[in-house]
Amino acid sequence: MSISCTICFENYEDNTDNAPKIMPCGDTFCFKCLKTIKKEKEKFNCPICQKEIFENIEDMPTNKYVFNTKKTILCDLCSNEFDNTYNSEHSPKVLQCGDTFCSKCLKSNSGSEIICLFCTKNKWKRG
Q1: % of the chain at pLDDT higher than 90
Q2: DSSP for 33-45?
Q3: CA-to-CA dists, residue 81 to 26, 71, 77, 124, angstroms
């Protein structure tokens, strides 16, 4: 599993400008790249899924998943191994609460919002 930003390819570091930030769509990029993309705009689009993002970058949670040192990490729903291939059906999507599921599981869930199965309060909104 790569632990680098898919925009600048620099390794993520906690509590720095290279901290991995979870966007509302579930994609993760470093704080520095998100600041560059957003600049002074009120909204911007995710570089991967193109969902419009209105949230303040400073308020986005840090993705602690990327610091996991396990060799194999599995989706909690389908138990398939995550891969970090661009837009793969088994690429990890991180909810605002930090729980992580594969894209396939999130897409197969019906409705426009998915409530986290673990904390039951945080949602992932389809783009």
Answers
A1: 11
A2: HHHHHHTT-S-EE
A3: 17, 10, 11, 21
- So what CATH class is 20-125? alpha beta
Residue ranges covered by each domain of the chain: 20-125
User: Are the beta carbons of 21 and 28 closer than 8 angstroms?
Assistant: yes
- For residue 38 the two structure tokens come to 């957003």
Q: How far apart are the first and last CA of the chain?
A: 25
- How many CB atoms sit inside 10 A of residue 111's CB? 7
Burial readout 37-76 (b: 16 or more C-beta within 10 A, e: otherwise): beeeeeebebebbebebeeebeebbbbebbeeeeeeeebe
| CA 54 – CA 44 distance, rounded (Å) | 7
Q: What is the pTM of this model?
A: 0.58
